[in-house]
């Protein structure tokens, strides 16, 4: 019998979350149209499936996001996997290309690319694609990761337009990324920079990540004839980009469920400790379950005592330090649980991944992406 740990990926939950985001955008467009008498339309959606679909699997993302307008990712190999999985729609490389040979693959597999530095424009200038390529020129509006500085952006965009005249490029869009859409600072300052620098330039626009899409959908709306795209990521997988709002409050469903079973129990006396470094000590007699899940499976090592977990349908807590292959749980709330009892670490019938991440001092993104290869994966419709 294999070790009793597994993860389940729900394709229907991925599809549900995409539909929730699309409906949210359509409602925002309808509300804005009614409010100011101007006709507004909802933006198109790049479903972001970088990092192998945030740990859910690229092929699963292709299935779940079949109704997306496009897919966005970083890695050429993932883009090729999407094509080989049957995706025929647009694909956007969010970091662009890294060397000239990448442009041959972009041409062969019909990939669009972000352009965020002069060197990428230089590579494009020497490209001879069979078909003109689509690009988004990226503005650094304050994130200070990728993108042209505001005083260099218009020249970069103009150079891209010149490459279009040469037949190297076809579409030339504009984009930026928000650093604080999930925080009180919001998007006003970077959006003002974007509008001042790039607002009057031609071409499609893409500005919104998950947080901006959910909290500030108005900024991504377009007028008829304009082309606007949002780039939601984490919310499509049923996790929240916000510390002050959970995914369920937006109607999102967890797409990944990590489950295991109890493989041993221990009866503790008052004063007995649990696990490495004796971080938890019982102050009274109690029963502890040992679960086949540890940090080598992707569960966070720093998820200490009190981290929520569900055993046999009852919510309880992790005790002590998480080991490489095991963790301990408090069986006080579920006295009938014994060896073989089901354990939900996070997901559809357990705590949310965001709850577990908060207890571990991190974010749900990290836990989803950290799922170890040794954990068996089961995909359900």
TrEMBL record:
Q: Required cofactors, per record?
A: pyridoxal 5'-phosphate
Question: What EC designation does it have?
Answer: 5.1.1.1
> Which is one Gene Ontology cellular component term of this protein?
cytosol
Matching CDD domains: PLPDE_III_AR_proteobact
> Biological process GO annotation list?
D-alanine biosynthetic process
Instruction: Name the chemical reaction catalysed here.
Output: L-alanine = D-alanine
Entry's transmembrane regions: none
Binding sites annotated in the UniProt record for substrate = 145, 324
What InterPro entries does this protein's entry cite? Answer: Ala_racemase (IPR000821), Ala_racemase/Decarboxylase_C (IPR009006), Ala_racemase_C (IPR011079), Ala_racemase_N (IPR001608), PLP-binding_barrel (IPR029066)
User: Where would I find the Alanine racemase C-terminal domain in this sequence?
Assistant: 255-380
Alphabetically sorted, this entry's keywords are: Isomerase, Pyridoxal phosphate
N6-(pyridoxal phosphate)lysine modification sites are 50
| EC class | isomerase
Q: Which residues form the active site?
A: 50, 276
Q: Which GO terms describe its molecular function?
A: alanine racemase activity; pyridoxal phosphate binding
Pathway it works in: Amino-acid biosynthesis; D-alanine biosynthesis; D-alanine from L-alanine: step 1/1
Q: Which NCBIfam families match?
A: alr
- Family assignment from sequence similarity: Belongs to the alanine racemase family.
What the protein does comes down to: Catalyzes the interconversion of L-alanine and D-alanine. May also act on other amino acids.
Name of the molecule in the record: Alanine racemase
């Amino acid at each position: 019998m294999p070790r009793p740990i597994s993860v389940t990926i729900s394709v229907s939950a991925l599809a549900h979350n995409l539909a929730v985001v699309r409906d949210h955008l359509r409602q925002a467009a309808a509300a804005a149209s009614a409010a100011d008498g101007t006709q507004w339309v909802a933006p198109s959606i790049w479903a972001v499936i970088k990092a192998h679909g945030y740990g859910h699997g690229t092929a699963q993302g292709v299935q779940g996001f079949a109704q997306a307008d496009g897919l966005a990712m970083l890695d050429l190999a993932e883009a090729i996997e999407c094509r080989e999985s049957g995706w025929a729609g647009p694909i956007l490389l969010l970091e662009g290309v890294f060397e000239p040979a990448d442009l041959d693959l972009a041409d062969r597999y019909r990939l669009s690319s972000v352009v965020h530095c002069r060197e990428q424009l230089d590579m494009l200038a020497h490209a001879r694609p069979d078909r003109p390529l689509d690009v988004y020129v990226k503005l650094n509006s304050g994130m200070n990761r990728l993108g042209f500085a505001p005083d260099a952006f218009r020249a970069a965009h103009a150079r891209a337009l010149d490459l279009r005249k040469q037949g190297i490029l076809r579409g030339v869009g504009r984009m930026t990324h928000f650093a604080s859409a999930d925080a009180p600072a919001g998007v006003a300052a970077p959006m003002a920079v974007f509008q001042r620098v790039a607002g009057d330039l031609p071409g499609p626009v893409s500005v919104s990540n998950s947080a901006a899409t959910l909290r500030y959908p108005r900024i991504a709306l377009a007028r008829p004839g304009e082309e606007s795209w949002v780039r939601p990521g984490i919310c499509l997988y049923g996790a929240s980009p916000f510390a002050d709002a959970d995914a369920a409050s937006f109607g999102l469903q967890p797409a990944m469920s990590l489950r295991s079973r109890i493989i041993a129990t221990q009866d503790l006396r008052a004063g007995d400790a649990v696990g490495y470094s004796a971080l938890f000590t019982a102050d009274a007699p109690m029963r502890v379950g040992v679960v086949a899940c540890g940090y080598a499976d992707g569960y966070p090592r720093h998820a200490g005592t009190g981290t929520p977990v569900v055993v046999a349908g009852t919510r309880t807590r992790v005790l002590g330090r998480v080991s490489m292959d095991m963790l301990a749980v408090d069986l006080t709330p579920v006295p009938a649980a014994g060896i073989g009892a089901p354990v939900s670490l996070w997901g559809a019938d357990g705590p949310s991944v965001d709850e577990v991440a908060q207890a571990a001092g991190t974010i749900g993104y990290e836990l989803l992406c950290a799922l170890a290869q040794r954990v068996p994966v089961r995909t359900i419709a």
